[in-house]
Design goal:
Blueprint lengths: L2 H12 L6 E6 L6 H7 L5 H4 L3 H6 L8 E6 L5 E7 L4 E7 L5 E7 L3 E10 L4 H9 L2 H11 L5 H4 L5 E11 L2 E15 L2 E7 L5 E2 L19 E4 L2 E6 L4 E5 L2 E4 L5 E3 L4 E9 L3 E7 L4 E11 L8 E2 L4 E5 L9 E8 L2 E3 L14 H24 L25
Antiparallel strand pairs: 1-2, 2-3, 3-4, 4-5, 6-7, 7-8, 8-9, 9-10, 11-14, 12-13, 14-21, 15-20, 16-17, 16-19, 17-18, 18-20, 18-21, 21-22
Helix pairs in contact: 5-6
C-alpha cells in the first residue's frame, strides 16, 4: 500500500482528533504564494527556507483553483492543501511545536470513464453544454473537429454525436481537464471519428493524425537537461517532486523562439523564474519561457509574435543553477507535457503502428455502436458535497 493511501486512511480514522472544521476557498487572481502566507499570518520564511524547486512550484498555483484550509477548535489554522496540478499539491501544516512546515503530497482522486450520445438541436457545443453543464466537455468535442468539419454548413437537426472521455473527480467534483478517448458525429448520414491512440495523439478512421496545436522547438540545437513530470517520488529526498516543463540547456545568449503564434500576456521578472515571458495562444493554450538573460528589443506585454520569432535569449536568472530555458505549456491554466506537441507536421500511421491503431479503433467503434443501440444518454448529477476532511493529511511527527 503506498504512502499517500496510508496517510489518507489514517486521517479518515483519526480526523476528529485534528480538526473542527475545513473551509474550501478559491485562489484569487493575481494573488502570489507570498501574499497568501502574509494574509494567513504564516511566516514567509516557509517560502525562503524551501529549496529552489519547491519555491518555483509555488508559482504554478492556478487562479480559481479550489484549496482547503483546516482549523482546530480554537479557530487556529492547522493545515493548508493547494493543488498545483491534477496529481500533486502543496501541503502547509503545523508540527507539535506549533511551527509551520511545508511538503508536497500526491492528490487522491478518482478517474471515471464517461460516455453519452445525443441528437443535435442547435449545435454540438450548445447541446453538449445543455446536457453536461460543462464548458470543458463541450470545448473538448468542438475543438477536436474544428479543423476537419464544417458544422454550420453540413450539420442538420437530428444528427447524432457520441463521446467517450475520462474525467477525474476530487471531493465528488470534476477535477482537471477531461481526456477525450473517442468522439463521433454523424452528418448527412456519414459518420466522422476522432480516436485517441496509444501515442497520445488523435487520428481519424484512416490513421491520419488530426491537425491540431503543434509547437515549434523553442531552442534549436539544444540539449534537453530535464523532462516534464507531474509527480515522482524522489528516492533520496524521500518526498514528491514535480517539474512542470522541459529544460533546454544551451550557452548564454542563445536565441529563444516563440513556439507558436500568439499574444504576450506577461513579460517581466519573477523571483522563481527570473526574466519570464508568457504567450497566450488559441484554444486556451499558453507557453512559458523562463530564466532568460534578457528579452529581445521590442518584446513587451500585448505584443503579437509569430511562431519561430526570436523573443529573448537564454540566461540563468531567477532560481537557476545554470544557463537554460525552462519551457512550459499550459492548457486552460494547467501544465501539460510539451514533448508530444512539438512537431513540424502531422503524420499518417503505417505498418505495425497502423495495425495497433486499428485494434484500438475496433474497440472504440464497438463501444460507440453499443451506446447508439442502447441509447446511452448523459446522466447529469449535481456535484456531491463530500466531506473534504478525507483529503487532508494528519499532523506529522517531528523529526
Amino acid at each position: 500500500m503506498n504512502r499517500a493511501l496510508l496517510i489518507l486512511l489514517y486521517f479518515i480514522i483519526t480526523a476528529p482528533l485534528f480538526a473542527s472544521h475545513v473551509q474550501i476557498e478559491k485562489w484569487k487572481k493575481g494573488e502570489t504564494y507570498l501574499m497568501f502566507l502574509e494574509k494567513m499570518d504564516i511566516p514567509q520564511a516557509l517560502y525562503y527556507d524551501s529549496d529552489k524547486e519547491d519555491q518555483k512550484l509555488t508559482e504554478e498555483i492556478i487562479s480559481g483553483i479550489n484549496f482547503q484550509l483546516m482549523y482546530n477548535d480554537s479557530n487556529s489554522l492547522e493545515q493548508v492543501l493547494i493543488p498545483i496540478n491534477d496529481e500533486l499539491q502543496l501541503h502547509i501544516y503545523k508540527n507539535k511545536k506549533g511551527i509551520y512546515q511545508f511538503d508536497t503530497l500526491p492528490i487522491i482522486s478518482e478517474t471515471r470513464t464517461e460516455s453519452f450520445i445525443l441528437r443535435i438541436e442547435k449545435s454540438p457545443y450548445q447541446d453538449i453544454l445543455k446536457v453536461t453543464h460543462s464548458k470543458r466537455i463541450a470545448q473538448l468535442f468542438a475543438s477536436g473537429f474544428k479543423n476537419s468539419l464544417n458544422f454550420r454548413r453540413d450539420l442538420r437537426k437530428g444528427d447524432i454525436l457520441a463521446m467517450v472521455y475520462e474525467q477525474k473527480y476530487r471531493l465528488g467534483k470534476e477535477f482537471s481537464i477531461p481526456i477525450l478517448k473517442v468522439a463521433m458525429i454523424e452528418m448527412r448520414k456519414k459518420r466522422h471519428f476522432i480516436y485517441l491512440n496509444s501515442d497520445e495523439h488523435y487520428y481519424d478512421e484512416t490513421g491520419n493524425e488530426i491537425r491540431g496545436f503543434f509547437l515549434h522547438r523553442p531552442v534549436t540545437h539544444a540539449r534537453i537537461s530535464s523532462r516534464f513530470t507531474k509527480r515522482r517520488f524522489h528516492p533520496i529526498l524521500k518526498r514528491y517532486r514535480a517539474h512542470l516543463g522541459v529544460d533546454y540547456a544551451a550557452r548564454r545568449g542563445t536565441p529563444i523562439l516563440a513556439a507558436a503564434s500568439g499574444r504576450i500576456s506577461f513579460a517581466g521578472y519573477t523571483r522563481g523564474y527570473g526574466n519570464l515571458i508568457k504567450i497566450s495562444h488559441t484554444d486556451g493554450y499558453m507557453t512559458l519561457y523562463a530564466h532568460q538573460k534578457k528579452f529581445k528589443r521590442g518584446i513587451k506585454r500585448g505584443k503579437y509574435v509569430k511562431k519561430g520569432q526570436v523573443i529573448g535569449y537564454i540566461g540563468t536568472t531567477g532560481l537557476s543553477t545554470g544557463p537554460h530555458l525552462h519551457f512550459g505549456l499550459y492548457k486552460n491554466g494547467r501544465a501539460v507535457n510539451p514533448a508530444g506537441v512539438i512537431r513540424v507536421s502531422t503524420k499518417r500511421l503505417s505498418g505495425s503502428k497502423l495495425k495497433n491503431f486499428n485494434i484500438i479503433k475496433k474497440s472504440y467503434d464497438k463501444n460507440i455502436e453499443t451506446m447508439i443501440t442502447n441509447n446511452i444518454q448523459y446522466d447529469y448529477n449535481e456535484p456531491m458535497q463530500n466531506s473534504c476532511e478525507v483529503t487532508l493529511q494528519p499532523l506529522k511527527e517531528e523529526n
